[in-house]
TrEMBL record:
Pfam family, any one: GMPPB_C
EC numbers for this chain: 2.7.7.13
PANTHER family to which the protein is assigned, alphabetical: SUGAR-1-PHOSPHATE GUANYL TRANSFERASE (PTHR22572)
Span of domain Nucleotidyl transferase: 6-238
Family designation: Belongs to the transferase hexapeptide repeat family.
Reaction(s) this enzyme catalyzes, per UniProt: alpha-D-mannose 1-phosphate + GTP + H(+) = GDP-alpha-D-mannose + diphosphate
Signal sequence bounds: none
One term of GO molecular function: mannose-1-phosphate guanylyltransferase (GTP) activity
Organism: Hepatospora eriocheir
Mannose-1-phosphate guanyltransferase C-terminal domain span: 250-342
Coiled-coil positions: none
Pathway membership, UniProt: Nucleotide-sugar biosynthesis; GDP-alpha-D-mannose biosynthesis; GDP-alpha-D-mannose from alpha-D-mannose 1-phosphate (GTP route): step 1/1
Protein name per the record: mannose-1-phosphate guanylyltransferase
């Protein structure tokens, strides 16, 4: 038996990246130079995964078309498992196994969240998993990563490489059990999926992992290198900055500056200041503009002498097709697609 199946938890409509996700599904939002989900697909391909199942609770024709292209690009079979009702994070695994029973024939299953960027080597995670299953038919290995603030993630208490306690999103600093978090990448025996309640709303973080930890079946794999949750706007821009430097993208002419990425056919006119932002395809930025801490959608037109975002606010996001008229002093908010912002 081998590990040849990967599952990517695509989830819902990507509300954290709204309004960009109003006009395209979250997996197709670009990070650096490719759709977010392609980083997961590449990592799985590098580990010789042959079948990838995307678990999602909506269908989108653009996503369906993209799957055809991905099958050719990554030389793997991509299947879609759609929920009729929300099943949280564990329920989709059970549904995927019902739709595609070959999951139960695999030695193990790689599970990944869709909206992460990491430098993980999946084959190294698999190798550790294979050592563990020699003595145990119920094993889950979680890739862990150390962060300064673990309150948005699942915290891991680790002893001798076993995860002895799993606490999802501690509410207070006093509840924090460590700075090691669940990086959203796992390798598990199919038996864990088989034992799940049939097609119920079940959380893998709140229901499954704590029980596995209690029973001594949850293990740690240290994710070295870099990891970021790009489904959060501020983290997206931070991750962009790190990756630009890490891969030396400015020198390779793949980045506009140390913290700015431009999409295809973006036009930047004279005397424009850009910092900590991403500007997607076919957008025009006219003269004398200042844009910082922002995500600018596709096909936008920014008039002359406009200021968008600032360093102290939340990330400003403009949906696709937004037009900001000349002389608008400040745009700090989430702007719906195709809105026209006039000078007051």
């Amino acid at each position: 038996m081998t590990i040849d199946i990967g599952i990517i938890l695509v989830g819902g409509l990507g509300t954290r990246l709204y309004p960009l996700t109003k006009t395209r599904p979250k997996p197709l939002i670009y990070f650096i130079d490719k759709p977010i989900i392609e980083y997961q697909l590449q990592a799985l391909k590098d580990a010789n995964i042959k079948i990838v199942i995307l678990c999602l609770n909506y269908f989108n024709e653009h996503l369906t078309e993209a799957c055809i292209d991905w099958e050719k690009k990554f030389n793997m079979k991509i299947k879609l498992s759609k929920e009729d009702k929300p099943l949280d994070t564990a329920g989709p695994l059970k549904l995927a196994a019902k739709n595609f029973p070959e999951i139960y024939k695999s030695q193990g299953v790689i599970v990944m969240n869709a909206d992460i960027y990491s430098t993980i080597k999946i084959n190294e995670l698999e190798n550790y998993f294979k050592i563990l299953i020699k003595d145990n038919s119920t094993v889950c290995v979680i890739a862990s990563y150390e962060v300064k603030d673990p309150t948005r993630y699942g915290c891991l208490l680790i002893e001798n490489n076993k995860i002895t306690k799993f606490l999802e999103k501690p509410k207070t600093k006093e509840e924090i059990i460590s700075n090691k978090i669940n990086a959203g990448i796992y390798c598990m025996t199919p038996k864990i999926i088989k034992d799940m309640i049939e097609l119920k709303k079940v959380s893998i973080e709140k229901d499954i992992f704590p029980l596995l930890a209690k029973n001594g079946n949850l293990y740690n794999y240290n994710l070295d290198g870099f990891w970021i949750d790009v489904g959060v706007p501020a983290e997206y821009l931070y991750g962009q900055r790190v990756v630009i430097e890490m891969l030396d993208l400015v020198k390779k002419n793949k980045a506009y500056s140390k913290n700015v990425i431009l999409g295809k056919n973006v036009i930047i006119k004279e005397n424009v200041s850009l910092s900590n932002c991403v500007i997607f395809d076919n957008t025009i930025i006219n003269n004398d503009c200042v844009i910082t801490n922002a995500m600018i959608g596709y096909n936008c037109i920014i008039g002359s002498n406009v200021k968008i975002g600032n360093e102290s606010s939340n990330v400003t996001i403009l949906g696709d097709g937004v037009m900001v008229k000349e002389g608008v002093i400040k745009v700090i908010s989430l702007i719906e697609p195709n809105e026209i912002i006039n000078k007051i």
